Amino acid sequence: MxxxxxxxxxxxxxxxxxxxxxxLGYRLAFHNLCSREPKTIYEEMKVVSDYNSRCLNxxxxxxxxxxxKDEKRLPVSELMGIAHLFAKRMGLDNHQLVAVTHKDTNNMxxxxxxxxxxxxxxxxxxxxxxxxxxxxxxEISREKNLTIAKEVKAKKKYQxxxxxxxxxxMKQQGEQWNKANQKAxxxxxxxxxxxxxxxGGQGSTMxxxxxxxxxxxxxxxxxxxxxx
Length: 228
Known about the structure:
The chain is of the alpha+beta class. The protein is built from eight helices and five strands. The protein has helices spanning 11-18, 38-49, 68-71, 76-89, 129-143, 149-161, 165-180, 187-198, and strands at 2-8, 24-31, 59-65, 97-102, 109-115. The longest helix has 16 residues, at 165-180.
């Protein structure tokens, strides 16, 4: 199980999203709320959040991912328990929140939208809140013997770095073949060409070009290539 949390301003949009037809699975929790539909839930939350005019991001969006192998052994009642326990561990007892599951992806996940302003007008502290959500998810996973996201990630990373022996052998053989068949420069031909070009003739520079320098123009006292 993995948990994420973020403070958001668009509470109405977030509520519409989690209740959208085709995505909505089970309705797990309605905490400190009388309403059951997104529009009226938002209006109910707004009555409380309007008491604080300085806070901009007045809602919390929480996502709890369930590992595929854990889905079959988690009935709705257990998912409800996880949603309530997660909210409690996050310190949201005095906050309004709604929790539902989504079925629009291969992996089941829980969405929680909470009012960041408590029933007593206190603003929920979101310092390192995403880290806190991840820690709570790990704690609950261990208690309920569920898959722990951090361990799965570490295992996948180890498997990725540990390549198969056959693949490593083929890679080494390919490198050896490339090294053995690498085309080397023909040093002898280059040396002979330079020697032929260097025998007699006039030298050329960036200033004179391929024709070289006229000997008469090198005489002192006369007009030279560089003037004078």
